[in-house]
Amino acid sequence: MLMKNALPTPSFLVDLDKLEQNIREMGELCKANGKELWPMVKTHKSSQIAKMQGQAGAQGYLVGTIDEAEMLVEQGFKELMFAYPVTASENIARVRELAKKAHVIVSFDGVEGAKLCNEMFALADLKVDYLITIDCGLHRLGVQPEKAAVLAQELKKLSHLQLKGIASHPGHVYGASNLDEVKKVAAEEIKALGVAKEVLVKEGFAVEIIATGSTPTAPLAAQDKNITALRPGNYVFYDVLQMAMGVVPEERCSLTVLATVISHTREDLYIMDAGSKCFGLDKGAHGISLAQGFGMVKGHPELIVEGLSEEVGKLKVTGPTSLKVGDKVEVIPNHACSSANMTNYLLGCRNDVVEEVIYVDARGGSYRKPPVL
Ligand SMILES: Cc1ncc(COP(=O)(O)O)c(C=O)c1O
User: Fold this and answer.
1) What is the domain count for the chain?
2) Which end of the chain is more exposed for a tag (fewer CB within 10 A), N or C?
3) Segment 157-168 mean pLDDT
4) What does the pLDDT read at residue 137?
5) Domain around 227
6) What is the spatial distance between Cα 165 and Cα 168, in angstroms, rounded to a whole number?
């Protein structure tokens, strides 16, 4: 039996009880509200965790990269949505191969990319489903909701594409500093999709899928009558940013990095053997910085992860501490999705025992073979 504390450091740990609870509860939320669940794979990039999500009711998966999609299809998953437009012909060719083996739904927010896809799908005589991406306030991808039908009219001319519905992502929720602000973003998300649906229906388009998602807004979006599918990602792990917004308490965070204290040369400073190559330098992807430091040391409220070099991190002491060189600490990352992308595998632990290896098998470059030169 391998005990957690006997692991070399740094090690990436996932608490299996928490992971299972997080996955189960999102499945239950969707089921209770009659929504489909299409979790975003970019958080974990792991076919093992995707399988767990499937067992908890996920109907399909949202992918951020073609690497993720190729891994899922190779593992036998059959229902995929692409979060972002694919516009390079080399990449469209990969999506086309996938569309021969699985049900693939692509997304567009403009005519140019759609035309390129249409041409390439025509060469294989494929008709591929798509969603129109709606900007619900993040101002990244997406058409304005009231313009959805204008784009749909243009895309209707493309005979190898089939409109299925609309999608959005309220990523600006990561600028929220409390649940009231999360609520406001969820209201924008719901409103934008409602407006887009209305203009499309008015022009005679069928809107079968209304998909949206973010972990913080999921419980609110689940209650909307228009939305048909939720696409959250981060909820499998949660992290310090979710805690800072009030989405979950610390007990729900399943991903941690185990590190060893390697130096203590100043009274108010310890150094651990995990740095930005374990945590990333994320303090919040899209908005204001809410987290104090670069992670949270479990069981040590007197420590702040004050700074990160690549391989080591600074732990600032703000109160009495029993910490000494050689001790191990477990640190919850600020942004779990970035952290999980730093390793080939996570070690699944139950209580203090290491139970299984969970491969992060769909990272860019870890799944896809290099090009033939
Ligand atoms: C398009 C899209 N949908 C869904 C998600 C999932 O959001 P979250 O990780 O907050 O659950 C993301 C995250 O980047 C996204 O880009």
Assistant:
1) 2
2) C
3) 98
4) 93
5) 16-236
6) 11
Q: How far apart are alpha carbons 339 and 293 in whole angstroms?
A: 15
Q: Measuring CA to CA, which residue among 104, 143, 108, 150 is closest to residue 127? A: 104
Q: How far is the CA of 229 from the centre of ligand 1 (A)?
A: 13
Among 207, 236, 265, which residue terminates a domain? 236
Q: How far is the CA of 212 from the centre of ligand 1 (A)?
A: 9
Q: Would the CB of 213 count as within 6 Å of ligand 1?
A: yes
CB of 158 closer than 8 Å to CB of 118: yes
> Of the residues 45, 214, 215, 248, which should be mutated to test ligand 1's pocket, given the most ligand atoms within 8 Å of the CB?
214
The fraction of the chain above a pLDDT of 70, given in percent, is 98
The residue out of 236, 262, 289 marking a domain boundary is: 236
Same domain, 23 and 170: yes
Ligand 1 lined by 40 (C-beta under 6 Å): yes
Residue 218 Cα: closest atom of ligand 1: 11
The identity of residue 297, as a single letter, is V
Using only C-alpha atoms, what is the Rg of the chain?
A: 22
Q: For residue 304, how far is the Cα from the chain centroid?
A: 26
Read off the pTM.
Answer: 0.96
